[in-house]
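User: Hi! I have a protein structure encoded as tokens and I'd like to know what sequence might fold into it. I'm fairly new to this, so please keep things simple.
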């Protein structure tokens, strides 16, 4: 495939698990291009084999270096077209494809996106949290000052927050999020579209407790509620040491009807409304 004097760099979204989650357009382009540049050739080879595609395959990942990037750019400049794929999902998001896209655009090489699977969007829409506005931060820095600064920034973020996380760092990340953001509503989605897909919805406290007794497995997408407007009785520093039923009474003293107070406390603390109602009833 050629386009004028240069080839085209196609950004092909590939399945994040289930091999059926691929568009007909992506399959056509994978067959027609001169080369497929893959972040993980083993995973991409399985996809190509499944659909009986025999296009030449080469690796392009974070350790490929400038030399490999130049080789791909030279092929594009010479009239060959290349399909760029990540190990799963849409290339250019939390992977090295971003650099190749920038370099191709700088040289006037056409870049064409082929939309499709995206783990962050799949987790966002299934989380039950507001999806109209969100902030995606990819993977948090592993440690140090940069991590602390980003967590402090996220504590002030009013939009829904979406993060990627590896299983061996999940517990620490949940603890850090709780420390900086408080006990917000949250969702942990793992192995999306795969056989063992799991979507856990609750609060950061509940998720931390859940994984304290279970070994996290699979790649995770975390979706966390953004910071809401300050309301009487919603500041974590104000009610963190109160029992749930005492929190209800505090809101009632500030003018909320009993049912509204119970509803708000149940939402803030991520506990069933009926359970809280029974506690309040017994306390009277």
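Assistant: Happy to help. Inverse folding works backwards from shape to sequence: for each of the 284 positions I chose a residue that suits the local structure. Here it is:
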């Amino acid at each position: 495939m050629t386009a004028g004097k240069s080839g085209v760099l196609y950004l092909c979204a590939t399945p994040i698990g289930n091999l059926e989650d691929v568009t007909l357009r992506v399959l056509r382009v994978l067959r027609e291009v001169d080369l497929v540049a893959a972040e993980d050739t083993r995973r991409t080879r399985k996809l190509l084999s499944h659909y009986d595609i025999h296009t030449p395959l080469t690796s392009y990942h974070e350790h490929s270096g400038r030399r490999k990037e130049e080789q791909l750019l030279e092929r594009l400049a010479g009239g060959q077209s290349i399909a760029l794929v990540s190990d799963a999902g849409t290339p250019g998001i939390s992977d090295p494809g971003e650099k190749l896209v920038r370099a191709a655009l700088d040289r006037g090489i056409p870049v064409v996106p082929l939309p499709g699977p995206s783990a962050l969007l799949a987790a966002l829409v299934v989380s039950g949290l507001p999806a109209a506005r969100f902030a995606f931060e990819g993977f948090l820095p592993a440690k140090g000052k940069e991590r602390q600064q980003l967590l402090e920034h996220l504590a002030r973020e009013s939009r829904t927050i979406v993060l990627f996380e590896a299983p061996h760092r999940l517990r620490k990340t949940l603890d850090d999020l709780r420390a900086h953001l408080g006990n917000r509503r949250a969702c942990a989605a793992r192995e999306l579209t795969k056989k063992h897909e799991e979507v856990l919805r609750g609060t950061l406290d509940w998720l931390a407790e859940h994984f304290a007794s279970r070994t996290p497995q699979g790649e995770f997408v975390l979706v966390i509620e953004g910071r809401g407007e300050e309301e009487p009785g919603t500041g974590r520093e104000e009610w963190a040491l109160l029992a749930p039923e005492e929190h209800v009474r505090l809101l009632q003293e500030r003018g909320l009807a009993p049912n509204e107070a119970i509803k708000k406390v149940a939402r803030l603390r991520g506990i069933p409304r009926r359970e809280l109602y029974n506690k309040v009833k017994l306390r009277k």
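A useful reference point when you look it over: The chain has three domains: 9-117, 120-224, 236-283. Feel free to ask if any position seems puzzling.
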